[in-house]
Amino acid sequence: MHAQALRTPTLGLTVLSLCLSIAIIGTAGRSLHVYYSEHSTNLWLLPVWPDHFDLRELQMLVGCAAAIVACNAVLGVSLVVAALPANGLVLITALLSTIVSIIALAFTTVLNYHAPKRDTLRTWTCRWSAVPRNLYSLGPPEEFHSLCNKTRFAYFSLIPLFILQLLLLGLGTWALFARRPQRSGHRELEKAGGGDGQYPLTNVPTGRQNPSFDTKSESSPQSYQGARVFAGKS
Questions:
Q1: Full-prediction pTM beyond 0.85?
Q2: In degrees rounded to 5, what are phi and psi of residue 200?
Q3: 122: exposed, middle or buried (Cβ count in 10 Å: 0-12, 13-18, 19+)
Q4: For 109-119, what is each residue's pLDDT tens digit?
Q5: CA atoms within 13 A on the CB side of 126
Q6: Structural domain spans, the chain
Q7: Helix (H/G/I), strand (E/B), else coil: 226
Q8: pLDDT recorded at residue 209
Q9: Which residues are paired to 228 by β-bridges?
Q10: What phi and psi, each to the nearest 5 degrees, are found at residue 127?
Q11: At 6, phi and psi to the nearest 5?
Q12: ∠ CA(17), CA(75), CA(213), 5° rounding?
């Protein structure tokens, strides 16, 4: 019961994280594609001054989201495949994805402080998309508004994505380290039984379980199937 109750919210958070990461890859990747395909012909993308744009923001967003997708995929598989050590994999993958999201947040934030001396595609398109076109249709391209929204979504989605990784890391840490008191309880039972596998009836583990992602862990009922309880010796 406890393992299932812990896996369900973890799977839910993992699915949300995957969806958000894929959306970031789609929006940031599409924006990069538009720039690479039009920067040499679109005057508003400054073809004679290509170094003005710092594309590392979008590249970092795509790389960060792809890394988190990989980590979340491993995490999700470990939750549904009973043969895998779910507790350890959840903690490791959540820790890695949290570190990646922190680095991406810090890096992209620093890049935006360089504008307007050196713009990201987001700062440039959002600045000029607010300028209205005149009667002669002179002004920034209409696609600047779409590019602004896409790059904004990719950038600001890092915040909820980072929060999701923190929640997964918290669940993984809790599931792994909450088992330690229960392991010490097993050692006390062995001492009480004289080390021969015979436990006093009063010290038999109850149905209460510690949180764990593993279907067959020390905190699950299956772990007690091999224990023999003796009320006394005949």
A1: no
A2: -60, 150
A3: buried
A4: 999 888 778 88
A5: 15
A6: 2-177, 184-229
A7: coil
A8: 55
A9: 198
A10: -65, -45
A11: -85, -35
A12: 115
